[in-house]
Amino acid sequence: MRNIVVFIDQPGSALGKAGKELLTFARGLGAPVAAVAGELSEAVRAELGEYGVAQVLNSNQAELFEYSIVPKAEFLAVAAQRVDAQLVLTGNSAEHKEIAARLAVLLDAGVISDAVGVVADADAGIQVEKLVLAGSYTVSASVRSAIGIVALKANGVEPEAAGSSSAAAVETVEVPFSELALRARIASRQARPASGRPELSEARIVVAGGRGVDGDFGPVEELADLLGAAVGASRAATDAGWIDHSAQVGQTGKTVSPQLYISVGISGAIQQKAGMQTSKFIVAVNQDAESPVFEIADLGIVGDLFTVLPQAIEEIKRRRA
Ligand SMILES: Cc1cc2nc3c(=O)[nH]c(=O)nc-3n(C[C@H](O)[C@H](O)[C@H](O)COP(=O)(O)OP(=O)(O)OC[C@H]3O[C@@H](n4cnc5c(N)ncnc54)[C@H](O)[C@@H]3O)c2cc1C
Predict the structure, then answer these.
(1) 3-state SS string over 254-275?
(2) Which residues form the Electron transfer flavoprotein alpha/beta-subunit N-terminal domain (predicted)?
């Protein structure tokens, strides 16, 4: 396969898990070229080398961050053309999916989002696996254009450094932004207070609470912190104002695909399942043995969450002591 451009968006002082996953995927397919938007520190450059990147295309132009979406798509278009890429990999967040779509228009390319796997086939080209209809179907799709754009879901692969590392060569890219790219200006940004927990859609473990917590997320948060997990919620819990809307998992919330999803006091309505059904291992705690959540649970615990969670917390602490 020809070069694979991997989009690394504002890495800051260290390469994040999402970027490492994309690079691990890319390495399995061909030669990864990192397209880094934002400042490129020496530490990140070294990490890129460790993850098998020999070439980095970097732009830190202010327009990338002062205007919405399109400048990043134009940067990736320049990067893809510069290295004659066959594939561009992006993350699967709402912003990255929009960037992927814009990029596809710019490059006259096929785009596939929500991907969980990519295979490069000499005859069939780029084959992508994705999950649809709340994860109840796996669909194989192929890109038929000369270059493909694929937005990959988080947690599809364990990040793994390449066996040997070498310093990645860095080339600065000056993007001639179009007039169209500068039409939606970002007026202000306000950072959310950091919770210290992992980002919900990227977390390896999620502990989610529903109406059953009855306003008290304490045990859910305590278990999450013990496991280094993100805290999720059903819509009933977010609508009640017990937790921020950004924690909502489901059809109208976030889609998560962690290694472990612990569902607590959630009935398992179809709209909730839509956002978590592809989790690798699902544990459900619910006092109603007939609750639909048990249909998708790998391990079901019938009981009062205010009894079950403290017992689990105590046992984990005891085993770690
Ligand atoms: C268009 C649309 C979009 C939607 N989008 C979403 C979405 O994105 N995400 C989402 O979650 N929902 C969504 N919903 C709402 C969804 O249909 C359900 O209403 C919601 O998921 C229910 O939340 P819940 O399971 O927490 O509450 P309930 O259905 O009320 O279930 C609460 C559960 O807690 C159990 N329980 C109660 N007390 C305890 C206890 N002490 N210990 C253990 N178990 C206990 C009960 O047995 C019950 O099973 C959407 C609905 C619509 C119409």
Answers:
(1) ECCCCCEEEEECCCCCHHHHCC
(2) 4-186
Looking at the DSSP bridge assignments, the partners of residue 151 are 90
Tokens of 207: 């502990």
Mean pLDDT for each consecutive 10-residue tract of the chain (321 residues)?
Answer: 91 92 93 96 96 96 97 98 96 93 97 90 82 78 93 88 87 97 94 84 94 97 96 97 95 91 97 92 98 96 98 96 88
Kindly state the tokens that stand for 87.
Answer: 């594939």
Report which DSSP code applies to 67. B
What is the DSSP-derived secondary structure letter of residue 175?
Answer: -
Model-level ipTM above the cut of 0.90: yes
For residues 202 and 179, give the distance between their C-alpha atoms in angstroms, rounded to a whole number: 34
The predicted structure's pLDDT at residue 129: 93
- The CA-based diameter of the chain, rounded to the nearest angstrom, is 61
Give the DSSP letter string of 268-302.
--HHHHTTTTT-SEEEEEES-TT-THHHH-SEEEE
Mutate which of 252, 277, 293 for ligand 1 pocket (most atoms within 8 A of beta carbon): 252
Q: Is 197 in the pocket of ligand 1 (CB under 6 A)?
A: no
- Specify the pLDDT at position 134: 64
Q: Give the pLDDT score at 55.
A: 96
Cα(211) to centroid of ligand 1, in Å? 6
Helix (H, G, I), strand (E, B) or coil at 161: coil
How many angstroms separate the alpha carbon of residue 266 from the centre of ligand 1?
Answer: 5
Q: What is the pTM of this model?
A: 0.76
Please name the residues in contact with 164: beta carbons below 8 A apart, sequence gap of 6 or more.
none
> What are the respective helix, strand and coil percentages of the chain, to the nearest 5?
30, 25, 40
pLDDT of residue 166: 81
